[in-house]
Specification:
CATH class: Alpha Beta
Order of helices and strands: HEHEEHEHEHEHEHEEE
Number of domains: 1
Distance between the termini: 9 Å
CATH architecture: 3-Layer(aba) Sandwich
CATH superfamily: HUPs
Number of helices: 7
Number of strands: 10
Helix content: 25-40%
Shape: globular
């Protein structure tokens, strides 16, 4: 991936915004929306899907970051790559910073603070999520948003995930498996490209999009980015006796 052209920075910059506006022109009367961003394929494809619509405009990304590790929670993606993704998408990113080993109450508090900062900065009342079919997760988010005074959106919910995975690939999405739950999928899949070959090798009980947490991804390219990210693969390590994380860093 050394031939990629996107430059990394230690802080978010927005020179890609002009390209984003050219490809996704803003329209009068669109509802501003913040997108819950994991750094993975479902969030990225949600951004792409929202940008095909004429009734909403994504104005910012909101990401939960684990302090000390300086990585996106669960995905394990470095903050430097998060910033590069935001820059490639032409959007500001709001970091909801969470301490290590935080409980759910702490998560909700930091997420609520992130939403409050998004509202203060962008006057937004709507938030989008990349959930695909888990009704209990959607119900939890619906309840949380109701308590916080936000309107949730789920552009991809109810999708046939086998069809969706192939549509992502056909649309130019480029992603890597950065985390594998080894209780559901063999660790040898960690670090693999999310491609047709991988989809063909997944065991039948594994969802093609990893919606049950079988795996998580790092998006490095696609139609939602002005240019692909240039990354290098590092080591794969087992955490908590269960999760195989493959490290990726700016090239």
């Amino acid at each position: 991936m050394r031939d990629a052209t996107f430059a990394f920075t230690s802080a978010v910059t927005f020179f890609a915004a002009v390209t984003r506006r050219d490809r996704y022109p803003a329209g009068m009367g669109r509802t501003p929306i913040v997108l819950s961003w994991s750094g993975g394929k479902d969030a990225a494809w949600t951004l792409h899907a929202l940008r095909q619509r004429d009734d909403v405009e994504v104005v910012a990304l909101l990401t939960t970051v684990t302090e000390g590790y300086e990585r996106i929670a669960m995905q394990g993606i470095r903050v430097a790559l998060l910033h590069a993704q935001a820059c490639a998408a032409g959007l500001p990113v709001i970091e909801a910073r969470m301490p290590q080993r935080a409980d759910n109450a702490t998560y909700e508090a930091v997420f609520a603070d992130g939403l409050a900062r998004a509202r203060a900065a962008h006057g937004v009342h709507d938030v989008a999520f990349g959930d695909l079919f888990l009704a209990d997760i959607k119900a939890y988010r619906d309840a949380l948003c109701a308590r916080l005074g936000w309107t949730p959106h789920y552009p991809l919910f109810g999708s046939d995930t086998a069809h969706l995975a192939r549509a992502m690939l056909a649309g130019g999405l480029d992603a890597r498996l950065c985390c594998v739950d080894t209780t559901q999928l063999d660790a040898r899949f960690a670090g693999r490209a999310f491609d047709a070959a991988l989809l063909g090798e997944l065991p039948p009980q594994v969802d093609p999009c990893g919606e049950r947490g079988e795996f998580h991804t790092l998006v490095v390219g696609g139609p939602m980015f002005a240019a692909p990210l240039d990354v290098v693969r590092g080591d794969t390590v087992l955490r908590d006796g269960r999760f195989a994380y493959t490290d990726y860093a700016p090239a």
